[in-house]
Design goal:
seven-stranded mixed beta sheet; 169 residues; 31% helix; 6 helices; single chain; 7 strands; alpha/beta
Length: 169
């Protein structure tokens, strides 16, 4: 954890990055600030925080075409990051995402859940790791059936259960 930094790809994801940093016991958080002149086109990107000699873990809710993700990875590597891993809950991965991810030397690994089917993407994208949401859904159903709190799955000791041990990066 001391050699890592959690990266929020935009200002809106800072709270998510803080939560992940707390879970992984990582002290450092960096935010990428983007300036867009028009929708879908980034004019300028910079970070708030240092990444030199660190492993960067980008945390985002989704990856679609991969354009912004690739630019973020290139920015972080250009600033001296040792390794860049991207973790996105929903891997939409519209064309040309797989091509962009495969061609991006700055990105070491892309981790997504199977909240969207990833069979085709997994065949075409060598850097892709897919984590199943099935154990989490099973626990949520069990908690609900027992009239227990589902939100407790995301706090404290629940995160140390066997179900979550396989999710460590």
């Amino acid at each position: 954890p001391n050699e890592c930094v959690i990266v929020s790809p935009d200002a809106g994801g800072v709270a998510r990055a803080r939560e992940v940093a707390d879970i992984l016991q990582v002290d450092k958080i960096v935010t990428i600030v983007k300036r867009r002149l028009e929708a879908g086109k980034i004019d300028f990107m910079e970070t708030v925080g240092e990444v030199a000699n660190l492993t960067c873990i980008i945390v985002d809710d989704m990856v679609d075409t991969g354009g912004t993700l690739v630019k973020a990875c290139e920015l972080l590597k250009g600033m001296g990051a040792v390794k860049v891993i991207a973790c996105c809950t929903h891997g939409i991965m519209s064309e040309p995402c797989c091509d962009r991810v495969n061609a991006c030397d700055a990105l070491d690994s892309l981790v997504v859940s199977d909240s969207i089917a990833q069979d085709d993407h997994a065949l075409r994208c060598s850097k892709l790791t897919v984590l199943s949401v099935a154990p989490l859904l099973a626990l949520a159903i069990l908690q609900s059936a027992k009239c227990s709190s589902v939100s407790k799955l995301f706090t404290g000791p629940a995160l140390e259960s066997d179900v979550f041990k396989n999710l460590q990066l």
